[in-house]
Amino acid sequence: xxxxxxxxxxxxxxxxxxxxxxxxxxxxxxxxxxxxxxxxxxxxxxxxxxxxxxxxxxxxxxxxxxxxxxxxxxxxxxxxxxxxxxxxxxxxxxxxxxxxxxxxxxxxxxxxxxxxxxxxxxxxxxxxxxxxxxxxxxxxxxxxxxxxxxxxxxxxxxxxxxxxxxxxxxxxxxxxxxxxxxxxxxxxxxxxxxxxxxxxxxxxxxxxxxxxxxxxxxxxxxxxxxxxxxxxxxxxxxxxxxxxxxxxxxxxxxxxxxxxxxxxxxxxxxxxxxxxxxxxxxxxxxxxxxxxxxxxxxxxxxxxxxxxxxxxxxxx
Length: 316
Known about the structure:
Helix content: 25-40%
Number of helices: 8
Number of domains: 2
Distance between the termini: 47 Å
Strand content: 15-25%
Oligomer: single chain
Radius of gyration: 24 Å
Structural class: alpha+beta
Strand order of the largest sheet: 2-3-4-5-9
Order of helices and strands: HEEEEEEEEEEEEEHHHHHHH
Largest sheet: 5 strands, antiparallel
Number of strands: 13
């Protein structure tokens, strides 16, 4: 897509810095004889990458202008404007906004009778992710559902599901498991309950571990001095090698399966207090009670409990 936009190094760096903020906007004039043509081939108008955040503005082959905003934490949202709504002009005003809750695209042609057209972002079937090498990966499409995406280059894994994707897929697995039936009575119910608790506990561990690292990629710097103080004595020697959240996780061997340890790590590293999250305290207490300690035996601990004969575990 040919067009005129200031893409100088200084502006690009300013945009990358602005994109590190979870709330922001970018407004500009774009000149192109092709963008507002209600026909023709599509193409990328703008793409900015900052850490693990991405914004992309493109014209599709369906004569729409699509604005994508993607982060590991919020996924990919798309705001779409149909070109049939906009009078033709070779110069157009464009405004992009983003936040964890909402994105929007606004366009207004420099033409007589032109008006500003607005579209809010919605969860997109097409997802954009950045692999560990910084490449942009386009996943899925309209009418296509893709889950558990892993990409390897040779023997090296360069892309895996995000924290929230893994957690949601864990909950989907639990819903499937809850539909299972057996004539074995209490033994089956106890087994079903243990499997559900196991999926929840593993899901919690993977979510916390991946999200702990993702936050830094989204522009939130961890408090490394405070985290280094959490290192066990046997691993203090690794402190001088820790320059990122991922290196801290690798060096510390931290057990994110443990509720109290996870709570401490997020609090010291990012100032996040579990008790202040927008989740009911009762739900947190129930979930905490299902997580087991470093030394407890999962099987023995949970089989020793007295489970009711009906509806052994209920999750909302």
